[in-house]
């Protein structure tokens, strides 16, 4: 895999330079985004669907007398967005933490091709946005069981980074001990369903989508690393210098989308689902008020610190060369705007009953189970927090441990570890957990 990184990334970064920008009266902004990467919806899918950017630019045009045109380009991962930014063909792009660092490293090699990190989109402070899943019938019960197996991943992606890092922590070398297959997320998902690969290491929303559909089960939760994972927005420095008002309008529009999502999480989830084809229940798992993603544009110090910690790892596997992080992070444009604080409600779980336009919350795992059991209603989805990591997951896909109460775990290895250290505790299936609550 180390040998594959430089060649693959160089191949992605080829192309002629045709910069977008302005004529005397028409200014074009090309936005690269990942529609199905729902951690970036406030800078992509939801932003586009709501028309916030176009409205902000229309208002800007009334002040400047210019016409602003938005060109949206949808990609499956961050790597091709970086390639197009290096070629001068994308002005603003959103991507995950590992792709952000690769973007910074590659563009710093090209003089006026440099980029700047101007905002975050969403984050999970423990790293639960990246996961490894296997087929439901897989004999694998932990990462060590993947030794000698084929793992589909998108090399250079945040999901790939988590997979490699997690494997290394349990003594599995990603070069020698497994076969890493570089595939787009959708291709990898198809390969997993077809049995062409043994596991899939990816980012949101692919693990949740596959597990919800009964096509995979969760083997490894990135939250076990306890390292923040997040996505952010980068702009071409040359474009930002020439068009600072456009960058400001984009950030204002991102704030509009963030405020809408946080105020109307169910409506936002349904809208994103309708545009992407993802299951609404999966979108809400990530984008709900207690979902896996916290949407906040602020460039928090702990997020920047996480990037700094990622740099040595990326260097060790050949992902980047030189990188000056201080010249890449630019909080200036966002600092001119009013960024509201994000307040998240606290509950242990939620249930979305069929026919309802809102969820019912529960303060404890057992209270959630009783609410479901006693309602007599059909359930669209039920969500519960992992007892160890706090990762929100599907209640019926969790591993429930009974013994002095009921505790949910999103991966089997966690549940078994708890049982082994608590005499008398045992793993029970979901129907049994409902009955015992």
Automatic annotation (TrEMBL):
Entries under SUPFAM superfamilies matching the protein: NosL/MerB-like, Periplasmic binding protein-like II
Domain of life assignment: Bacteria
Signal peptide bounds: 1-21
Annotated keywords: Signal
Membrane-crossing residue ranges in chain numbering: none
InterPro entries: SsuA/THI5
Chain ranges of the SsuA/THI5-like domain: 128-268
Stored Pfam families: NMT1
Listed name of the protein: NitT/TauT family transport system substrate-binding protein
Species assigned in the record: Kutzneria kofuensis
Lineage: Bacteria, Bacillati, Actinomycetota, Actinomycetes, Pseudonocardiales
């Amino acid at each position: 895999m180390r040998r594959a990184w430089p060649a693959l990334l160089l191949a992605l970064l080829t192309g002629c330079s045709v910069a977008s920008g302005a004529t005397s009266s028409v200014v074009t902004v090309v936005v690269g985004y990942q529609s199905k990467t729902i951690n970036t919806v406030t800078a992509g899918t939801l932003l586009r669907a709501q028309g916030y950017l176009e409205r902000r630019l229309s208002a800007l045009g009334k002040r400047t007398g210019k016409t602003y045109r938005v060109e949206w380009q949808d990609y499956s991962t961050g790597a091709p967005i970086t390639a197009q930014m290096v070629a001068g063909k994308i002005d603003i792009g959103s991507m995950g933490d590992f792709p952000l660092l690769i973007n910074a490293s590659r563009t710093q090699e090209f003089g006026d091709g440099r980029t700047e990190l101007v905002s975050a989109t969403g984050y999970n402070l423990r790293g639960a946005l990246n996961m490894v899943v296997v087929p439901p019938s897989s004999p694998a019960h932990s990462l060590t069981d993947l030794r000698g197996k084929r793992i589909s991943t998108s090399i250079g992606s945040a999901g790939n980074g988590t997979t490699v890092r997690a494997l290394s922590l349990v003594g599995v070398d990603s070069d020698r001990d497994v076969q890493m297959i570089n595939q787009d997320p959708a291709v990898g998902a198809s390969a997993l369903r077809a049995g062409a690969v043994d596991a899939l290491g990816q980012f949101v929303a692919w693990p949740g989508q596959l597990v919800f559909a009964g096509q995979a089960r969760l083997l490894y939760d990135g939250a076990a690393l306890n390292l923040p994972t997040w996505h952010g927005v980068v702009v071409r420095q040359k474009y930002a210098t020439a068009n600072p008002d456009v960058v400001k309008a984009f950030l204002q529009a991102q704030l509009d989308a963030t405020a809408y999502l946080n105020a109307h999480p169910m409506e936002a989830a349904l809208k994103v689902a309708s545009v992407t084809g993802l299951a609404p229940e999966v979108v809400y798992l990530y984008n709900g008020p207690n979902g896996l993603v916290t949407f906040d544009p602020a460039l928090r110090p702990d997020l920047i610190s996480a990037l700094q910690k990622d740099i040595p790892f990326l260097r060790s596997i050949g992902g980047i060369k030189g990188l000056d992080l201080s010249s890449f992070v630019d909080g200036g444009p966002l600092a001119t705007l009013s960024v509201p604080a994000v307040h998240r409600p606290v509950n242990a779980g939620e249930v979305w009953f069929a026919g309802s336009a809102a969820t019912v919350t529960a303060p404890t795992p057992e209270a959630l189970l009783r609410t479901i059991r006693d309602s007599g209603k059909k359930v669209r989805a039920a969500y519960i927090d992992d007892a160890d990591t706090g990762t929100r997951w599907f209640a019926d896909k969790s591993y429930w441990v009974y013994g002095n109460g009921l505790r949910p775990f999103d991966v089997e290895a966690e549940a078994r570890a708890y049982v082994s250290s608590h005499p008398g505790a045992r793993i029970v299936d979901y129907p049994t957990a409902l009955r015992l609550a």
